[in-house]
Each structure stands twice: as C-alpha cells, then as structure tokens.
Amino acid sequence: MPETTDRSKQNASAADSRAERPLRLLIVASVALPLAIFAIAAWISYNQHIADATDRLQRTVDTMQEHATKVFETFAISERYMEELFNDETDADIIGAEQEYSARIKNFTRDLPQLRDLWVIDATGRPLVSGTVYPMPRNLALADRDYFSAHKNGASGDTFISAVVDARAANTNFFAITRKRMTAGKFNGVYLVSIAPEYFTRYYSEFPEADITVAGLSRADGVTLARFPAATAGSRSMPNSPFMRAIVDNPQRGVTTGTSSFDGAKRIIAYRKLPDQPVYVNAGINLSTIQADWLSDMSAHLVFGIPATLTMLALAMMTLRHTRRESYAYAQLRQESARRESTEQALRQAQKMEAVGRLTGGIAHDFNNLLTAIIGNVELANRRNTSTDERVAKSLGAIRQASMRAATLVQRLLTFSRQHPQEVKAVDINRLVGEMSELLHRSIGETIVVETVLSSGLWKTAIDPNQLENAILNLAVNARDSMPKGGQLTIETSNAYLDEAYVLRSGAEVKPGQFVLVAVSDSGEGMPPDVREKAFEPFFTTKAAGAGSGLGLSMVYGFVKQSGGHVQIYSELSQGTAIKMYFPRLADSSSVPAWETVETPRMPRSGEHNECILLVEDDEDVSRFVIDALGDIGYRVEHAATAARALELLKAVPEIALLFTDVVLPGGMNGRELANEVKKLRPELPVLFATGYTRNAIIHHGRLDTDVDLLTKPFTTEALARKVRQVIDGKTT
C-alpha cells in the first residue's frame, strides 16, 4: 500500500510538473518577449531612420547637382562671352580700350552673384583687363598660377578648374574656370572666370539641418572648391577618405558611409558628378544626428506603442510559427517526393541499362568472334584477290565496311552498358585535348570555329584515354550537326567540386568530392526539354533515318559512368548545348600507369618475321583467320583449342616467343588462368589476350588489369600484326 501511494504521488507530481511547465514558460516569455520585441523594433526603426536619412540626403544632393549644373552653365556662357568679345583683339587693342572693356565686363557680371570677375591674361601671365580692377596694374604677374601653367604647358584640355586661391588684386578668394586664349593657332594667354565660393556656401547653408550636416563642391581629385561649414582655402579630401574611395568605385553617383578626413565625424555621404565637368557635389549627415532622432522616436514608442505592438506581434508570431510549420512540412513532402521520383528514375535507367547489358553481353562474345572471322577473311581475300573484275574488290570492300559498322555498334552497346574493357591510365586531359586539335578540325570542317579553354593546374584522372578521345569526338560531331550554318565549338577543362547539395539535386550516381571537368559546348540549335531528357537513351536520335545509330551520346554516358564520373546536359533552344563530363580526381597516381603517346609501329611486311606464336582459340573460324594472317607475315603458329593443350605445346616447343590466347576458353581454365600457369613455366614469355566480351577474368569493375595486353575483338589484320609486334618487342604501354 505505501508503495502504491508513493507511486501515486510521483504520478501526481509529474502531472503537476507537466501542467506548470507552460506557466513557467509563459512567465519567462512575459519578460523575455517584450525585450526581444523592443530589440527587434529598435533595430528595424534604426535601419528605417538610416534609410530615410539616406533618401533625404540623396534628394538633397540631386537638388545640389541641378543647381550646380545651371551655375556651371552660366560659367560656360561667360567663357563664350569672353571669346566673342576678345578673340579678334590684340593685347595692344585690349589695353588701349581697357576702360570700355572693363565697363562691359562689369555690366555683364553685375547681376550674376556667383561670378567674382572676368579676366583676360596675356601669354606672359600679365592681366590685360577685368571687370573689377581698373586700371589694371601692369606689374601684376599671374604666370605662377596653376591654371596658367596648365594651359601654357598643354597639361590640361581647353578648360581648367583651379583650386581656391587668394586674390592678388583684392582682399578676397576665388576659384577659377579658365580657357585657353588662342590667336592664329598659338597660345596667347587665358580667359579666366573668377567664381565666388561663398555663393555655393550660402546656398548649402539654407538646407534644413535634418537633411544635411555638411555640403560641398569638390574637384575629382578631392580639392575643395566650396564647403558648408566653410573650410580653409586649399583643403582637400584625403585619398583614402570614404568620399574619394567611393568615386573611384562609382564615378558618377553613389552613397557611402565613413569617417570624414576633415573633422573625424562619422557620416553618410552622398555625391553626384556634374555633367561634362570633373566636379562633384556632395553632402553628408552625421550618424550621431540620425541616432539622436532615432532615440527620440524610440522613447515615444516606449510610452505609447508597446502594449499594442506586443499584442499584434504576439498574434503575428503565432500565425508565422503556424505557417512555418506548414511550410516546413510541405517542403519536406516536396523533398521526399522529389527524392522518390529521382530514385525511381535512376532505378528505371539502371533497369534499362541492365537489360541492354544482359542482351549485349549475351551476344557480344559470339558476335565478335563472327565479326573477327568475317573482317579478317575479307581482308585476306582482298589481299589475295587476283581477279581483274573490279566488282569483286568493291564487294569485298562493302562486306568489310558493313562488318566494321557492326563491330562499332557492338562496342558502343558495350560502352553504354559499362561492359567495354577500359585500359585505364593516369591521363593529363589538357595534353590529350591539345593533341586532338588537328583531328577535331579535320572531323568537323572549316565552318566551325574550335576554341579550347584549358585550365592551368588541372588534376589528373584515371580513365581510358582512347575512349575519352572517342567521347570528345562524338560530342564534336554532334555539335557540328547542330550547327549546319557554322558556329563555335568550345572545349573547356577545369577542376571542380561536386558538393552534397548538387549530387542530391541532380541525382548523380557519384559521391561528393573533387572532379576534373571536361565541357564540350556549341552555339547550335539547342535541345527542347523532351529531347534533352531522352538524349542518353540507346537508339534515340533526332536525325533522319540512316543518318545515325542513336548510340553516340549513349556511349559517352556509359563511358563516363564506367569511369566513376558524372555527365550532365545543359541546353536551351537557339542558345546552344553544353555537355559536361566529370571524372574523379586521381590523388595518387603511383598505382596507375602513366599515359604516354606511343608511336604506331609500321605494318610488318610479308615474310619479315619468323617467331613462333602459340595461339589458344577455340573458335575454328577465328583460329583459321589468325593462322593465315600471321603466316602471311612469316610467323610460325602453333594452335591449341584448350588451355590444357596449350600447356603441352609450350613444353614441347621451347622456341615459342608469344602466347596469344582468347580469354574465354573451354575445359575449365580461362585465358587468365592459363597465362598464370604459363608465367610459372616461362616468366619472360609475353602474353597477348583477345576477347570479345568478358567481365572478370582480366577486367574488374569495367577496367583492364594493369599487367594485361589486350586485343579487342573484332580486330583487323593490320591491328593484329601491329599488336603482336608491339608485345613481342615489349613496346606496349
């Protein structure tokens, strides 16, 4: 009974605890929530004050720019007035009529408060006439002024804007806009428009303090022409000031924030460039001013707005939380649906490939044996043909061509189904693409411009270089067909990283990591979405009947997948197509043989060689062809149909120089096992394998074992002769 009571108390305590937990959370929330809301509201309000102040500042600067543009147009009119008045006058004529000209200038500037005066200066830097100084002192020298030396030395254009300088003929200061005075094509002095900086300062002082704290007119090099509050003559913005950095990045207009180089105050600064002038108007507002206004508003908000804000925000947050939950659940549902769809699509593709692979694998060995016999015997017949009837040679050629097309079809099917043996090397793809240049130009014609963009520092990858060449060539030919009127073909390489998000999104059958990218893109017609989705399917083609087998892209797909990589099509109608192949990076190349370009040996002549070769082949037609072909060259051939018979012949004929064996053999021992037994008896004896299709004897995971020399069926007489010679001479790679 006491035990039951204790358990009841414990259950009751647990129930009370569960009931009190929301209350405790509510108490904590009643303190934390107002603080959080106030902090958020304060942050939003502060950003809004910054945005409002920036907006007001930009409108003010727009007004300043409009005002300054009109004023500078007045200066330009003044310059033209000076040119019209004095262009045809000599210095002597101007001095002679100085009083009249001075009066006319004074009358012109009387109603223009922005103008201090207009001056004419001769070629030696001596003033000739002005509107405010009469008579002009003839000993007044202005040749040392920057505006005069700039024009005289040709360092400026037609117009020059000076810094603010102290006047020498009056107790005042000014900045000048000057123009060259030319006579008969030669420099003859300067026309000077003297401008009152205080005109701009008074104008800037009339803006409300809430809109600007400081305003100014500056040259592009930072020299201050006018400023409110007033600055000392000759002052300028430092090169690393916020204003100077901003106009370097955005020369026409902009807004920046930083510490002023004049007084150290932190401001928001807006600026605009005057049209056709190296002059900027700029204005700034202190952040402290904005912060003071913000604190005032927040104080009012604390007094009047917190209760209503808290209520509304609480309801909004509840609604938002509910919406987020629903959105998250819906997103999860969409993600799961997409994942399932991607998985189902990958499964369908895998099933399709498995079906093609089984079909191909089932017929490949026997079919390739038949093709080997057909191609070989046709070549022998053609070589031995003594008939004068040309139709015989044409018929033999047609048989050989059809047989080679059949062999290519089988190889493409094997490649698509990832069952074609790969001779994997550590490949430098940049070098491979470079060496393909001539072949590509020859294959796609002169109407296509081929461009290669090869990344420096490209990683190596472990692939079959011959199959990569075939893949690139296939893609180039497809690109050519999509550009009947010509265009551009680009082959690009680079290092790449496929992250987990990309792998999940694209449904790639690879692990995230480092890859070598080979992209082949064209400027052709592009693919519609329905064609793009089926592009890799075997026998799918948009070409006319008889123009293509539909296995080109399928072969590329199978090769990339068999290499452990990923392939993706990017295409838009009328924009072109890019096919990107990703191959895994080879981090350690010590276990993979290096790829080297081997010079193709010449075709042996009849009777040139006389070594003894042990042929192990159970197919009578293939055996007959190989014996005849090698016999024509001069080789002596010992034939065995089984591995057991081959071992007997090896012991009986010590002069055998090469073991040439099929991989698939009857009698319980395949070609690989035979080679292993032969190596025990004759370790130095070279071995050449032949196969039409096999999975695991000399090929593992689709790749040829590194110590294997292979001749793939069907093979021609020339390929047989060259390969045999290479293996005997030990020159294979």
If classified by CATH, what would the architecture of the largest domain be? 2-Layer Sandwich
How confident overall, as mean pLDDT? Answer: 80
State Rg: 45 Å
Q: Give a short account of the largest sheet.
A: 6 strands, antiparallel
- The number of distinct helices, counting runs of at least 4 residues, comes to 19
In angstroms, what separates the terminal alpha carbons?
A: 89 Å
Fourth-tier CATH superfamily name of the largest domain:
PAS domain
Helix content: 40-55%
Low-confidence stretches: 1-9
Domain module tally: 3
Shape: elongated
Number of strands: 25
Q: CATH class of the largest domain, please?
A: Alpha Beta
Helix/strand-derived category reads alpha+beta
**Could you tell me the strand content as a percent range?**
15-25%
CATH topology of the largest domain: Beta-Lactamase
